[in-house]
Write a structure and sequence with these properties.
Blueprint lengths: L5 H11 L32 H9 L4 H8 L16 E7 L16 H5 L7 E7 L6 H6 L2 H19 L6 H15 L15 E9 L2 E8 L6 E10 L10 E9 L2 E9 L6 H29 L2
Parallel strand pairs: 1-2
Antiparallel strand pairs: 2-4, 3-4, 5-6, 6-7
Helix pairs in contact: 6-7
Length: 298
């Protein structure tokens, strides 16, 4: 079986990037999506062309995959497990500010964040962190958004790093840290020595705001991240409705978090619009991820 079958030759040819003249490689492959992976004429396992091509795009060759799936192979030799816990939540704050950061919890966010066991990742989506006035929506007022965002970030910093940093330290450290992290760059901002948790992302679009905090010790294992912002307001230009999303790779697992704020209404057409907007958000997010993936493999 070591390269003796036609299927094995086809696999070897594809991996080498070769194609025999007058006999396209695809002719030697058998699509197993219909027959459950078995050639009815020979009873032998066959190769799903589409699946193998997609896997190959991610650097997973068919031979490696076949070995991994073989019942004779110990999968532990290929796999290392990491147990991580994520706290994911959403909170419409209706334009309100958080607690004053001196130990009070006027917003109730501390009880909410710390209700469960300690997590490795905190991903929180806020809506309406600024009042959705005409001036805030039409001008996409960065200064107003940034003030509200930093207030919430400082409050979360005080909650997750209780006893380690003062409110003044939060206000001083976070602007630089967030400016460094609100792109594809991954950094702990040099604050690992001071904090158990650091902000990976804090991104807003008008009143929609996604913040993701991770344990400082986890930062070196976050190998990739991508932010995707999608507008669903008037003519899908204004950002009062839409989404802010993050896709990240932790070790070898991809995680996605999307904070969505859609239009209200109980009529059938209101519900239909929300479905259309959600489909638009997913489409934009997937296309962005596909484009980024192609760029990484060029």
């Amino acid at each position: 079986e070591q390269g003796g079958s036609e299927e094995r030759k086809a696999v070897d040819a594809v991996e080498a990037g070769a194609e025999a003249e007058g006999s396209p490689i695809e002719d030697d492959w058998v699509d197993c999506t219909e027959d459950g992976g078995v050639d009815p004429s020979s009873g032998e396992a066959v190769v799903d062309v589409g699946l193998e091509e997609r896997l190959r795009a991610y650097g997973v060759g068919p031979l490696v995959r076949e070995q991994f799936l073989s019942p004779q192979v110990d999968r532990q030799a290929y796999t290392k497990k990491h147990k991580l816990m994520a706290m994911v939540g959403t909170f419409n704050v209706n334009g309100q500010s958080p607690g004053d950061g001196d130990g009070g919890d006027a917003s109730g966010v501390e009880k909410w964040l710390m209700a469960e066991a300690e997590a490795d990742i905190y991903a929180v989506g806020f809506q309406e962190i600024v009042a959705l006035t005409a001036s805030n929506v039409l001008s996409d007022n960065f200064a107003v958004q940034q003030t509200a965002l930093l207030a919430w970030e400082a409050r979360i910093d005080q909650i997750l790093n209780a006893g380690l940093v003062s409110p003044e330290a939060s206000r001083q450290d976070l602007p630089h840290m967030l400016a460094e992290n609100n792109n594809d760059h991954i950094s702990d901002g040099g604050l690992r020595a001071k904090r158990r948790y650091v902000p990976l992302v804090a991104k807003s679009m008008v009143g929609i705001y996604l913040t993701v905090w991770v344990k400082a010790a986890l930062v070196p294992h976050i190998l990739y991240k991508e932010l995707v912002v999608v507008s669903c307001g008037v003519m899908r230009v204004l950002g009062n409705k839409g989404s802010v999303g993050l896709r990240m790779r932790v070790h070898d697992t991809y995680l996605s978090f999307i904070c969505v704020h859609l239009s209200s209404g109980e009529k059938r057409e209101d519900c239909a619009k929300r479905y259309w907007d959600l489909a638009h958000i997913f489409q934009k997010s997937i296309l962005s991820q596909h484009h980024q993936h192609q760029h990484q493999h060029q």
